[in-house]
TrEMBL record:
Pfam families documented for this protein: Motile_Sperm
Highest taxon of source: Eukaryota
Listed PROSITE patterns: MSP
Keywords: Coiled coil, Membrane, Transmembrane, Transmembrane helix
Protein species of origin: Helianthus annuus (Common sunflower)
Family according to the record: Belongs to the VAMP-associated protein (VAP) (TC 9.B.17) family.
Protein name (record): Major sperm protein (MSP)
């Protein structure tokens, strides 16, 4: 047995049910422990009910009250029975816990934590003036007959039985005078209808006799008809599988034809794609050959230019080896001039 943490005064939530009107009720909870207790209220239909407060903390040996307001209903439930329920969860919390600290994680049953749960059902009560609460008044058959007899009597007789004054009787007679011809006409019509019915009755009896004779004739024929219908049903059952088989064969043939057409179309599309790819491949091969020829010509030109460059470099190197003639000639002239100068000077 789990220890009871909260004592709930009401086991049911009773609402006075009225269309397009709100209804509310309140429930008191008592903390029977010497600890602080947190509570949380849940419902299966939160859009329909408003709970204030829906969570909080109750001090030790103290009580708390919450109110539940049902929104204005638009349609009455069948048999005035509600399937809505409420759940009150409670657990012990440390001192100093406030209402803002209460969360749904506090009421998770784990690690031996004690969580007390109370379930409340919703009961719908019709209003005091509702016709549901009024007992049905049974009318005696004799009384109803008396009432009908009173209705069939003329207003004058009713007035006499009620001791109405003579002036009012004259007024009722004046009212009756224009109504009497209509009543007589209606009685005449009824008599005519009765006479017609009397004439028609023999014909109706004859027709009924004819029907009975036809039924008697049909009775021995019925087994034969049933046998023939059974044979026809058996033939139909035999023919049905063959027809179904033929239909299935036709469907399969049609499916095969459609599949063959689809395959032929797919093959033609693949062939066209292959032709396009072959044309593209030929074009690519031609471009590759052209590029390879250009590459070869470029390589040959490069090789030729490299040879010419090597020749130019070798000639330049040869020209730079030894002294040039102009340089030798100039050195000779300078040396002759210097010799002449030295020879002209006295010793």
């Amino acid at each position: 047995m789990k220890p009871e943490i909260l004592e709930v005064q009401a086991q049911q939530l009773k609402f006075i049910f009225e269309l397009k009107k709100q209804s509310s009720c309140s429930v008191q909870m008592i903390n029977k422990t010497n600890h602080h207790v947190a509570f949380k209220i849940k419902t299966t239909n939160p859009k329909k009910y408003c709970v204030r407060p829906n969570a909080g903390v109750i001090d030790p040996n103290a009580s708390c009250e919450f109110s539940v307001t049902m929104q204005a209903p638009k349609v009455a439930p069948p048999d005035m029975i509600s399937k809505d329920k409420f759940l009150i969860q409670s657990t012990v919390v440390p001192e100093g816990t406030e209402e803002e600290d209460v969360t749904s994680n506090m009421f998770v049953k784990a690690d031996g934590k004690i969580v007390d749960e109370k379930k409340l059902k919703v009961i719908l009560i019709p209003p005091p003036e509702s016709p549901i609460n009024e007992p049905l008044k049974l009318v005696d058959s004799n009384a109803s007959r008396e009432v009908k007899d009173d209705i069939n009597t003329s207003p004058a007789k009713v007035a006499e039985s009620l001791e109405v004054p003579s002036e009012s009787l004259e007024v009722t007679r004046k009212i009756e005078e224009p109504v009497k011809p209509k009543m007589e006409e209606s009685s005449k019509r009824k008599d005519a209808a009765r006479k017609i019915e009397e004439h028609v009755k023999p014909e109706m009896e004859e027709s009924s006799k004819r029907k009975d004779a036809a039924r008697k004739i049909e009775e021995p024929v019925k087994p034969k008809m049933e046998e023939s219908s059974k044979r026809k049903d058996a033939e139909r059952k035999i023919e049905e599988p063959s027809q179904v088989y033929a239909k299935r064969n036709e469907e399969f043939v049609q499916i095969d034809n459609t599949e063959e057409l689809k395959l032929a179309e797919d093959v033609e599309a693949i062939r066209s794609k292959v032709k396009e790819l072959e044309s593209k491949l030929t074009e690519a091969k031609a471009t590759i050959l052209h590029l390879t020829e250009e590459k070869r010509s470029v390589a040959q030109e490069k090789h030729f230019l490299q040879g010419e460059l090597d020749l130019v470099r070798s000639k330049r190197h040869r020209a730079q080896v030894g002294f040039p003639l102009l340089y030798v000639f100039m050195v000779g002239l300078v040396s002759l001039y210097l010799g002449y100068l030295f020879s002209c000077t006295p010793n």
